[in-house]
């Protein structure tokens, strides 16, 4: 009898731990999702006034130049950050689980020193190597690339501080500083572009250069926001350090080794999407010159459509996956430290289902409103090609988002080397398929090669996770089928609303205008979103993903 009682208590504790862990992940995901989405939306909305400031003739060239500079900057920034924030978040969670908060604080201080060094080195490299890195951008790209060196100086330290907060599973500071950073960047971008192009009628290259320099301005504001959060919570952190067991004494050199050993795989995996974008940037023009008679200006227009325009919008969707990825790493690290394989398996399954729950409707919804949303942001120039590319990109974004999540899962359970190996396989596939696919399908070919490369890498990683830790396959399959079905219904509803609104409004207005297109996009998104919300609440899928709190949401909306 006692054994049965003890067994029941043990099962109850396991359920409570599982629900608590799921609750932490959902809460953390909510904060990171809000921060990421708001930042991405800001990073997309600025395009509308920015496009109007440059005008129809200069905007495609300015957008291409901006994108080329930012792709290079993203890779150097990833190297400068060196994966240290995520590595520190993982290690801080590890030591916190052992009640060694003093070691966590020491780890952060040493990480800051390392971040400053890598920031300075990479900033100098990108500044002096700008003429070599300019590539197809020519001399116009040199000042743009150099302007981004300033941001690389301070962003690594800022990102590390975010990682420290995340190690304590405090996601709000990271989310809010991310939003403040983006807000400061966008305000400076638009103000400087307006002043140069409209007030003094200056050079469009100078305006683009100041728009990229805005990354530094935004970083300053983001860092200040983090400082404010730390100042408010300093007593809490100091109290945790004072109550540490202090049973572990880690030497400085060992701390650096620990950070670097964790960080190197993060460099490769963290820059996975950027590496694929750079493959496009440095190969697309050469392949298309070989396959067509297009001029370099024509190719810049096409490149801007898939690499800049569509990519900027789908990254709003992919940022959802990034938010999930950042949240799950400390939780998995904590479970790994405790040797709790059952919890690891549960969290892996929860993370994949949560990814599908958010990503499937978001990606298909973006595909449904591709026409009006593309016109809203980029006008009517090449609008048919732009809408088709955005539709295809939205579907491809599922593989990009999944890669972000599954590599974070591998890192959270210390399977970094294996994740890197699988990414290398995916990159080789991208390189092998790039030439024939771009040759025959142009911009769509580049997206196809990206989808194939990431899909293979994702399959290898998920298969590895299943083999080593086990996944709740039946649960994942059951929920995946329901989520995909609901997402497809959402897609159809949004698509019907788009066509219906275009027809109805087209009788009175020009439905190709940016304002009407925005209205149609919002209307279709609201309709599709409502249908998806109703379906996941009615079917209880929302309860499985987000927990029992969905019961109160159902009561509020009178859904049985």
TrEMBL record:
Q: Which InterPro entries match?
A: PG_synth_SpoVB, Poly_Biosynth_Transport, Polysacc_synth
Keywords per UniProt: Cell membrane, Membrane, Transmembrane, Transmembrane helix
- Report which superkingdom the organism of origin falls in: Bacteria
Q: Which PANTHER family match?
A: LIPID II FLIPPASE MURJ, PST FAMILY PREDICTED COLANIC ACID TRANSPORTER
Q: Name the Pfam families for this protein.
A: Polysacc_synt
Q: State the membrane topology.
A: Multi-pass membrane protein
Q: Where is the composition biased (Acidic residues)?
A: 1-17
Is Repeat given among the entry's keywords? no
- Region annotated Disordered sits at 1-21
Q: Where are the transmembrane segments?
A: 30-52, 72-93, 114-135, 147-165, 186-207, 213-231, 259-279, 313-332, 352-370, 390-410, 422-440, 446-462, 483-509, 515-537
* Any one GO CC term of the record: plasma membrane
Please report the name of this protein according to its UniProt entry. Membrane protein involved in the export of O-antigen, teichoic acid lipoteichoic acid
State the species of origin: Fructilactobacillus fructivorans
Quote the subcellular location field of this record: Cell membrane
